[in-house]
Design a protein that fits this description.
The protein has 413 residues and is an alpha+beta fold. The chain has helices at 11-14, 17-25, 111-124, 145-166, 208-214, 259-272, 279-295, 299-303, 308-316, 335-341, and strands spanning 44-55, 67-77, 80-81, 84-85, 90-96, 175-183, 197-205, 347-350, 371-379, 384-389, 407-408. Helix 6 crosses helix 7, helix 6 (259-272) packs antiparallel against helix 9 and helix 7 (279-295) runs parallel beside helix 9 (308-316).
C-alpha cells in the first residue's frame, strides 16, 4: 500500500500573509530565470546597447551605497555555441567606482585600480581620456581642493557625454568583439560543490574584416574605403570637447541580423523585471524607450503603453500621421460593406489594440493613431486577417510570439 501523503497547512501558520502575497505576485510575469552566456566564445560580436552609472542599493560586488558603472551589449554572433542559443543574449561589463575592501577570496582593490578598468574600456571603444587645463588637478596635488573637485566634475561630465553618444540610437551602432571563459573554483567547506563561473572580456571595437570573416564574406579590399564617406566622430556636450575617437562601424558592415531579435530580447528581459529592480531590467527599459522614440513615438506615448511588450511593438511599428485619404471603414453604412471590401492586398488603417480589442492609449488617455496597413491573409469564416505595414512591408507581429497578429475585421478602419 503506498504511503498516504497529507498536505501540511502553511496557511494556518501564515494567516493573512498568504492572501497578501498571492495578491501581490499573481499578475507578475513568469520568471524563467537568467540565462548565462556559455564559456568558450571567441571572436563573438555584440551591439552596444546601454551604458550608465548607478548607486548600489543591495549587497553585491559593489558595496551598498557606492556607485558602479555598467555597459551592456546584445549578442549578434554566433547564433549558437555548443547547442546553446547565444544571439539575443546580453554581455556586460560592471566596474565599481569606489574602493573595494577585501571580501572572501577577493583582495582589496583601490578606486584608482577600478578607474583604470573604467578608462581602459572607453579606450577600447575609441574614446581617448579627457585632456586639457579643465581636467587637471592642482599642483602640488591636493593644494586646491575646489579646483580638484571641479576637474573631477568635468571628467565625469566628459564620460557621461561619451556614454550618451556611444549608445545614441540616432547614430550608427557600435559593435564590440568579446570572449567568454569558464572557471570553477576549488571546493571548500563553505562551497563543497562550487558552480562554474563565467568571465566575459570585451576586446574593443569589432573590425569590418573580423565581421566579414565571421560571415564567410571576407574581401581583401573591404578595408579600402573612402574616408570622406565615413560618419563624423562623436560630438560631446558643452562640458567636454570631442575626443579623438575611432569611428564606430557603420550599419552596413554589421552581421546580417533581424532587428526584431534585439527587440524581442529586450522585451523578454523587461517583462521579467517590469519595475526595473535589476540592472538588466533598467537597461532594457531604457533601450526600448530610446528605440521607440527614435522610431517616432513620443515620451508620453511610451509612458502610456500597457506593458513593455507594447513598447516593443512601438519600436517595430513606427507611427504614421493620420490622413483622410481613405474614409475610415467605421464610417461605412453596414458591416456587410466592410466584408465585401476586406481582401488580400486591400489597404486599411489599424491601431494597436489589446487582445480584447481595446485601443492602446497614452498616459493622457489619447488613443494611438492608426497605421496604414495592407491585408496579407484573410479568414472569411472567422472574419479575421493578418496585416503588414505599408511603410516598410513588415508584418504586424506579436512581440512575444513573433507571429503575425490576428486582427478582427471590425478593428480595421
Amino acid at each position: 500500500m503506498p504511503v498516504q501523503q497529507q498536505m501540511s497547512s502553511f496557511a494556518s501558520r501564515m494567516g493573512g500573509r498568504v492572501a497578501a502575497a498571492n495578491a501581490e505576485h499573481a499578475a507578475k510575469p513568469v520568471d524563467t530565470g537568467n540565462r548565462r552566456l556559455p564559456p568558450g566564445l571567441r571572436n563573438a560580436i555584440a551591439k552596444l546597447s546601454a551604458m550608465y552609472t548607478k548607486q548600489q542599493t543591495e549587497d553585491g560586488k559593489t558595496p551598498k551605497g557606492e556607485t558602479f558603472f555598467r555597459a551592456s551589449a546584445i549578442t549578434l554572433f554566433p547564433e549558437q555555441h555548443n547547442g546553446q542559443k547565444v544571439a539575443g543574449m546580453v554581455t556586460q561589463v560592471m566596474i565599481p567606482l569606489c574602493d573595494l575592501p577585501a571580501k572572501g577570496d577577493s583582495k582589496a582593490k583601490s578606486f584608482s585600480e577600478n578607474w583604470f578598468e573604467f578608462q581602459n574600456l572607453f579606450k577600447l571603444l575609441g574614446i581617448a581620456p579627457p585632456t586639457g587645463p579643465q581636467y587637471e588637478m592642482s599642483n602640488p596635488p591636493g593644494s586646491n581642493p575646489a579646483k580638484d573637485m571641479a576637474a573631477g566634475q568635468q571628467i565625469e561630465a566628459y564620460y557621461f557625454a561619451a556614454m550618451k553618444t556611444l549608445t545614441d540610437p540616432q547614430r550608427p551602432p557600435v559593435f564590440i568583439e568579446f570572449s567568454t571563459r569558464g572557471w570553477t573554483p576549488p571546493p571548500n567547506a563553505r562551497q563543497p560543490k562550487p558552480e562554474e563561473m563565467i568571465f566575459e572580456t570585451w576586446h574593443g571595437l569589432a573590425s569590418p574584416e573580423t565581421i566579414a570573416k565571421l560571415n564567410g564574406q571576407y574581401n581583401p579590399a573591404a578595408g579600402v574605403k573612402d574616408n570622406s564617406a565615413a560618419p563624423p566622430a562623436p560630438t560631446f556636450n558643452e562640458f567636454a570637447p570631442p575626443p579623438t575617437a575611432t569611428t564606430p562601424l557603420t550599419a552596413n558592415t554589421a552581421p546580417q541580423q533581424d532587428p526584431d531579435d534585439e527587440v524581442a530580447a529586450l522585451v523578454e528581459t523587461a517583462t521579467r523585471d517590469p519595475d526595473g529592480s535589476t540592472d538588466d531590467g533598467v537597461a532594457s527599459h531604457r533601450r526600448l524607450e530610446e528605440l521607440a522614440w527614435a522610431a517616432g513615438w513620443t515620451k508620453d506615448q511610451t509612458a502610456g503603453a500597457a506593458d513593455w511588450a507594447a513598447v516593443g511593438d512601438m519600436v517595430l511599428n513606427p507611427p504614421t500621421a493620420p490622413t483622410q485619404a481613405t474614409p475610415p471603414a467605421s464610417e461605412q453604412t453596414t458591416q456587410g460593406s466592410k466584408q465585401l471590401a476586406v481582401g488580400v492586398g486591400s489597404k486599411w488603417k489599424f491601431a494597436k489594440r489589446t487582445k480584447e480589442g481595446t485601443k492602446l492609449k497614452n498616459n493622457k488617455g489619447e488613443e494611438f493613431p492608426p497605421n496604414d496597413v495592407e491585408i496579407v491573409t484573410v479568414d472569411d469564416a472567422a472574419k479575421t486577417c493578418t496585416l503588414k505595414m505599408v511603410k516598410d512591408g513588415k508584418d504586424v507581429i506579436d512581440i512575444r510570439s513573433k507571429k503575425p497578429v490576428v486582427v478582427k475585421w471590425e478593428w480595421l478602419e
